[in-house]
């Protein structure tokens, strides 16, 4: 199987992983950069979409809200997929959370004496 076939299969299975031509800039205030830019409101967010230059793509919001939006989309997709429990376990391993970290940090470390 060629690499293109594998990438195409992954894009069809997981559409949110699809690579875009340019990344969207997340800014606290967005504005038009040229005459081809259009300001659009979708799902309570303000976007700037440009026909002439894809580098002008912008979304209004905080950086943390961008991560939260991605995690919500991922959670919705994980519920719809047949291996949701596997994906949830994998996410827990990658991002263990604050409680396991505090337990690890506060654990008593015993250093053996060499003499």
Order of strands, main sheet, comes to 1-4-3-2
Write down the overall geometry.
elongated
Q: Into which percent range does the helicity of residues fall? A: 40-55%
Strand proportion? 15-25%
Mean pLDDT: 73
Number of discrete helical segments: 4
Oligomer: single chain
Rg over alpha carbons: 21 Å
* Poorly predicted tracts of residues: none
How many beta-strand elements?
4
Fill in the keyword field for this structure.
43% helix; 4 strands; alpha+beta; 4 helices; 115 residues; 4-stranded mixed beta sheet
SSE topology sketch:
Blueprint: H1 3-13, E1 25-27, E2 37-42, E3 45-50, E4 58-60, H2 63-80, H3 84-94, H4 98-106
Parallel strand pairs: 1-4
Antiparallel strand pairs: 2-3, 3-4
Write up what this structure looks like.
It comes from Phytophthora rubi. Keywords: Ribonucleoprotein, Ribosomal protein. One of its GO terms (molecular function) is structural constituent of ribosome. InterPro entries: Ribosomal_bL36 (IPR000473), Ribosomal_bL36_sp (IPR035977), Ribosomal_LSU_bL36 (IPR052010). The protein is an alpha+beta fold and 115 residues long. Among the domains are: 23-61, no CATH class; 63-94, no CATH class. Helix content is 43%, strand content 16%. The protein is built from 4 helices and 4 strands. It has helices at 3-13, 63-80, 84-94, 98-106; strands spanning 25-27, 37-42, 45-50, 58-60. The chain has a 4-stranded mixed beta sheet, with no helix packed on it. It is elongated and about 75 Å long. The model has no long low-confidence stretch (mean pLDDT 73).
